[in-house]
Amino acid sequence: MRERQELDEAVTAIKKLEQDLEDAATLIELGEMEGDQASITEGENAIKAVEKEAASRQVETLLSGEADGFDTYLEVHAGAGGTESQDWANMLQRMYARWAERRKFKVEIVEMTDGEEAGIKGATLLIKGHNAYGWLKTESGVHRLVRISPYDSNARRHTSFASVWVYPVIDDRIEIEIKESDCRIDTYRSSGAGGQHVNTTDSAVRITHNPTGIVVACQQERSQHKNRATAWNMLRARLYEAELKKREEKANAEAASKTDIGWGHQIRSYVLQPYQLVKDLRTGTQSTDPDEVLDGDLDPFMEASLAQRVFGGGEEVADID
């Protein structure tokens, strides 16, 4: 049923594009016949809107990977730098939540650890929607922020780092075998809002997979049993994502070198002062409106990264600051 719905939406969208294009052409033709410049302009604007929508649909055809259609987990972790980096991690978490909301995706907070003074040390979001993992998979990596710190009384310029990790939610058809003896399970008290119950019971669960060093945590539910089940699902998803990455590296070593995920590998720079610029260091895609980007306008960056991953081309763009 889900596949049928997705196909139905795709066919409907193409038919709408064809109809919108025909309507715009007719409007321009009538405007030219009657000398009505307003109608001509309206028709031209309509064609530009169709062109933009068609380009977006074309990018969606790039999302044909094994897990691209799945829902996704997205983790954000603050780097070194205390309050400044924790505030930046919180800004990133909000940016991705706003991006998802713009696409009518559903966003759930699975786990969040507050910072000491402001921001967050880390958070895990569950984003549900068609091709959620496919769209977000190129966002894994290190994101850098340059700004005048609101937490510095001397108003000095600070550089902060936060890492993003994206991995798909896998369904029951995919079997991932995990030996419980390979894992360490810790329980602890949840933090944040939730009333007295949250702060008095060890309902949060953390699972460490010893062979790989992968750590997942969940404090979404009041029940330890439910959090434990969610954490196991997250661990299965992380191990599945790691296997997908191995396959990609084996299939295309050159592409893998461009998409390697590591703390020292910056993928995007967000400069708020002394000038305003968001720049993707892999594709060279830029925006001079950081506020709009931080409010979820990420599609141009994602589309460029997806196209580069599929078609290749171009070396990493040097960071100029």
Features:
321 residues, disordered C terminus, 3 domains, Double Stranded RNA Binding Domain, alpha+beta, 9 helices, 8-stranded mixed beta sheet, Alpha-Beta Plaits, 23% strand
Strand composition percent: 15-25%
The overall strand count is 11
Low-confidence stretches: 254-263, 314-321
The major pleated sheet works out as: 8 strands, mixed
What average pLDDT do the residues reach?
A: 84
Spatial strand arrangement across the major sheet: 2-3-1-5-4-9-10-11
The secondary structure category is alpha+beta
SSE order, one letter for each helix or strand:
HHEHEEHEEEHEEHHEEEHH
Helix content: 40-55%
* CATH topology title of the largest domain: Alpha-Beta Plaits
Name of the CATH class of the largest domain: Alpha Beta
Number of alpha- plus pi-helical segments: 9
Radius of gyration: 22 Å
Q: Which of globular, elongated, flat, extended, rod-shaped describes the shape?
A: globular
Could you give the topology of this structure?
Blueprint: H1 2-34, H2 37-60, E1 72-78, H3 83-102, E2 106-114, E3 120-128, H4 132-136, E4 141-148, E5 157-168, E6 183-188, H5 196-200, E7 204-209, E8 214-218, H6 224-251, H7 253-258, E9 266-271, E10 277-280, E11 286-287, H8 290-294, H9 299-311
Parallel strand pairs: 4-9
Antiparallel strand pairs: 1-3, 1-5, 2-3, 4-5, 6-7, 7-8, 9-10, 10-11
Helix pairs in contact: 1-2
